[in-house]
Design a protein that fits this description.
A hairpin with a 2-residue loop joins strand 1 and strand 2. About 35% of the residues lie in helices and about 5% in strands. It has a domain of about 70 residues. By secondary structure, the protein is mainly alpha-helical. It contains four helices and two strands. It has a two-stranded antiparallel sheet.
């Protein structure tokens, strides 16, 4: 699995969830060799502290994405009764509205 750079991670989150989603937290510094980013599997790793940082950032992103103010953009269907299963919403094709990825 390839590790995204901080810029790639930010752009991916923006493409998928929108530019208004903020990312708070620190990324581990990218390793450089000869002034260039090291991208081979033997050089690019994620430390346990780095995994914790990704977890903190992901939880913050998830909280924003499913917040009450953004819920309508995320969920394509609202049940008639929020306490009971709703066949109309269960049959919905997609619960997540995705934006087209940009390069």
């Amino acid at each position: 699995m390839r590790r995204l750079t901080a810029d790639q991670y930010r752009q991916t989150i923006s493409d998928v969830f929108g530019s208004e989603v903020s990312i708070s937290g620190r990324f581990e510094p990218d390793l450089r060799r000869g002034g260039l980013l090291a991208v081979d599997a033997s050089a690019v790793t994620v430390t346990p502290a780095g995994v914790e940082q990704y977890d903190v950032m992901a939880r913050g992103i998830a909280a924003q994405v499913v917040s009450a103010s953004r819920r309508d953009a995320l969920l394509s269907c609202r049940p008639d009764n929020p306490t009971k299963a709703d066949a109309k919403c269960a049959a919905a094709r997609s619960l997540i509205r995705r934006r087209r990825m940009t390069t």
